[in-house]
Every structure is written in C-alpha cells, then in structure tokens.
Amino acid sequence: MSKTPPPVVSALLAERADAIAEAARELAAFGWTPATSSNFSMRIDDDLAAITISGRDKGRLGRDDIMVVDMAGKAVGSDHRPSAETGLHTQIYRRFPEANVVLHTHSRTQSVASRLFASEGRVRLEGWELQKAIAGYTTHESVLDIPVFPNTQQMPELEARVDAWIDSGKPLYAYLIDGHGIYTWGRDMAETRRHLEALEFLLGCELDLRRLAP
C-alpha cells in the first residue's frame, strides 16, 4: 500500500465514488452486473483513478466500496484489493487523455455477442442511426468496429492486444472480451453511459439480425 492520499484527493474520491455508485446501481437494475461482476472507474487526476473494490455487489455500492489506484493499477492509501481488471482501466486513461470514465459490464447481450463474433475478431456496426450516439460519429453512413479480444486471466496479455489495436491506427471506442463483457469510456459519466447504452442496443440489433436471417 502506498501513502495516504492528500485531502484534495480524498475529497475528489468522495465525489467520484458517489457518481460511480449511482451509475452502478442503475446498471445493476438493468441486470448488467450479475453476481458482483463488472467494474467501474473515474479519473481523479493525471496520476490517480477511483475504482470499484473487487467482489462488491454493484447494486449496493457506497463510498466505502470505491478505492484509489495509481496509473500502474496499484492501491493508494488502502489495503483493499482493486478489481482484477484494474490494468484495463488505467490503460485507457494512459492511452486516451480525454477519457475520464471507464465502464465495464456483463449484460447477456454483450456476453452472447462476444461469443458469436469472436471468430470474426470484431463486431462491425454499419448503417445504424444510433451509431451517432458514439462521440465523433455524425452519420449512420459510417463504420464502427468493436473488436472482440480473446479472454484470458493474464491482464498484461489483454492489455497488449488493446495496445496493438490502438498502435495499428484503428479507432477504438469500446471493446468486447470473448465470453465476458464490454469496456467503453468517455469524457464524463454522461457520455460514457450514452456509449454503453447505445452499444448495448446496437449489439442487440446485430444479434436479432443473425437470429432472424433465413
């Protein structure tokens, strides 16, 4: 455990914890965080982030269920264990300075889509009006690729795959993990919630098309 955060960080942590807990309760009510799954975070500053403590019921989060980590994913001022996937959150903050919130959920739709499209390595969204809910997209006449990465318990391996996608120059707004769920992010909680809800809807539409195809 590293040193106790200064008072200004503690104040920001309380603010971020309240926002995370509120969003988590709403997402849990949708059924997107079963069996204590999922994890959520918000950037505090360039060096620190607030993130859910591992194993907590996401429908019952309070301030005591959120902790501080540095950008290497190490606990700051706490003996609690952060989510096992903390490195995936801090990676987004390091790679995308404009990102201030990361949400990771395990809805049925996300999980099924991750399995169905795993062999293709991506879900290609094209022609859907709701693509405009994603920051930077202004028309349905666009292509939005959501990569599907293989699942592994080795977080550095997953992080390397995400880095490789970004380093190849391909846009990245969210990604799925095979048999797992989705990660998405944004400039603030409202934008990130919008991304998550839009992608949930769009993935459901793609699954319906596959199911209804003759």
UniProtKB/TrEMBL annotation:
For this UniProt entry, the molecular function terms from Gene Ontology, in alphabetical order, are: methylthioribulose 1-phosphate dehydratase activity
**InterPro entries this protein is in?**
Aldolase_II/adducin_N (IPR001303), Aldolase_II/adducin_N_sf (IPR036409), MethylthioRu-1-P_deHdtase_MtnB (IPR017714)
Reactions listed under catalytic activity: 5-(methylsulfanyl)-D-ribulose 1-phosphate = 5-methylsulfanyl-2,3-dioxopentyl phosphate + H2O
Required cofactor names: Zn(2+)
Q: In which pathway does it act?
A: Amino-acid biosynthesis; L-methionine biosynthesis via salvage pathway; L-methionine from S-methyl-5-thio-alpha-D-ribose 1-phosphate: step 2/6
Record EC number? 4.2.1.109
**Chain positions recorded as Zn(2+) binding sites:** 104, 106
Q: What HAMAP family does this protein's entry cite?
A: Salvage_MtnB (MF_01677)
A Pfam family of this chain: Aldolase_II
Give the protein's recorded name: Methylthioribulose-1-phosphate dehydratase
> What family is this protein classified in?
Belongs to the aldolase class II family. MtnB subfamily.
**What PANTHER family does the record tag this protein with?**
METHYLTHIORIBULOSE-1-PHOSPHATE DEHYDRATASE
Domain Class II aldolase/adducin N-terminal, residue spans: 18-207
Lineage of the species this protein comes from: Bacteria, Pseudomonadati, Pseudomonadota, Gammaproteobacteria, Lysobacterales
Function summary: Catalyzes the dehydration of methylthioribulose-1-phosphate (MTRu-1-P) into 2,3-diketo-5-methylthiopentyl-1-phosphate (DK-MTP-1-P).
* Keywords of this entry: Amino-acid biosynthesis, Lyase, Metal-binding, Methionine biosynthesis, Zinc
Q: How is the cofactor bound?
A: Binds 1 zinc ion per subunit.
Does the record bear Metal-binding in its keywords? yes
